[in-house]
Amino acid sequence: MPRAREEARYRHPRHERRGEARLPGAAATLVAIALYLLLPQQLLITPRYVLPTLECVLLIPLVAINPRRLTRQTRAFRVLLLTLVAVIAASNLLALGTLVHELVSAEVKDGQALLVASLQIWLTNVIVFGLAYWELDRGGPVSRTQVPREELPLADFRFSQDENDDAVQEVSDGSSKTSDWVPTLMDYLYVSVTNSTAFSPTDTMPLSSRAKFLMSVESVAALLTSLLVIARAVSILH
Predict the structure, then answer these.
(1) Average pLDDT over residues 31-35
(2) Residue 180's closest CA among 6, 4, 13?
(3) Does residue 221 contact residue 89 with C-beta atoms inside 8 Å?
(4) Distance (Å, rounded) from C-alpha 137 to C-alpha 110?
């Protein structure tokens, strides 16, 4: 067996119990916060800096608990993280609702600003639902690397790597059964992107009711943004 393929069996962070890196999750959260800050004032339900400040306050202890890698988890940690994701998601969905209302019921002149805002809302939607999937599936990022597989909660998503162990060798060597592969934030962001563009699951299937509910909400929000908001804003430009 080639050395690179042999190493694939042992190089996954799960074997080393190092946990996922903190930076990608924190960076994704900060991008979502920044996108909200840049929205037009008429789409905000509170003064511009109130919700971003609250979100940063929630993020700080999460980074303090796991500053470099996600290896420690308490009930308070999960409550804080889920609260942060919920606040970002709720504020973004409310901004989308306000944007749709503005386009449907008001005389809109600044189509370019609304077009940019719709793209900001769509991107925030992708990020926040990716974070939600990442935190909920199999007990969250800490559990996925620190807890033995037989003790993990039931999966919310079925990835192709979870069932590729009987494929050709160059595929099966990277499967969950062979290499102890587990999904990372990038995998959940990919699920979120495909769900927001195809409006349905692609290669990753939702298994639990909550996963199906979240993917349904994301798909409807993306559909509104893509078909109604962007189409209306573009028509205003002409």
Answers:
(1) 95
(2) 13
(3) no
(4) 41
